[in-house]
Write a structure and sequence with these properties.
mainly alpha; 6 helices
């Protein structure tokens, strides 16, 4: 019996490596990438950094080639909308910034009518930018719920990457607020300057008379 037990043990030890061996490693090129919420949030926050830098080309280059081809079906529309909103607001921010420079120049030249038209257009762009921010913020929160961010530990990478996206959205919102303040200050200057520059009127009283070369002619006005 002892001999039999020893034989069984030897046989078991011989076959066990093949039975319990780990599965062979999968070819990295054939492996399907795992969708990662942390990577997605970081990609968004990095893209928003370029919005703050007013770098349209880099924003478009990053988001038109999204590296997340395996986005879950339930998040596909949200991520597409988020990317579109980032591109949209990047254009709006650059346009608004340029409009403020033009508006300041028009004010300096006392071209108040043109400045008023441009100011109205710029306020419309600011409203559009607000809408894009709201859509991005809502998309971020929806994505966060899908990845169960509210239940993630406060110091976890998932929670931090999520908070970084919202923090950048808040910074863009603050930038738009500064643009509004600049607009208000410029329009206040326009109002004050317009009140000081009252229209000049000139009236002349001329009596018809015959005059020859060398005669003096007088006007009253």
């Amino acid at each position: 019996m002892i001999v039999g037990a020893i034989i069984c043990l030897v046989v078991f030890c011989t076959i066990s490596p093949s039975v319990f061996a780990a599965e062979p490693h999968q070819d990295p090129e054939m492996a399907e990438p795992v969708f990662n919420g942390i990577s997605l949030f970081r990609y968004y926050s990095n893209s928003l950094d370029f919005v703050l830098r007013k770098d349209i080309a880099e924003v478009e280059a990053r988001l038109e080639k999204m590296p997340f081809a395996n986005v879950p079906q339930n998040l596909q529309e949200i991520t597409d909308d988020f990317a579109a909103s980032i591109i949209g607001i990047s254009h709006l921010v650059v346009d608004i910034d340029g409009d403020l420079g033009t508006l300041k120049a028009l004010m300096g030249q006392y071209r108040f009518d043109e400045a008023t038209v441009l100011a109205d257009e710029t306020y419309s762009k600011l409203s559009l930018a607000d809408g894009e921010l709201e859509r991005m913020e809502e998309a971020t929160k929806t994505t966060g719920r899908e990845f169960k961010v509210p239940s993630a530990p406060v110091g976890s990478d998932l929670r931090k990457s999520y908070d970084e996206v919202l923090e950048r959205i808040d910074r863009i919102r603050e930038m738009l607020g500064l643009y509004r303040d600049m607009m208000a200050n410029l329009l206040l200057v326009r109002t004050q300057t317009g009140e000081m520059l009252s229209p000049t009127e000139l009236s002349l009283k001329i009596e018809p008379m015959v005059a020859f070369v060398g005669d003096s002619i007088s006007f009253e006005g």
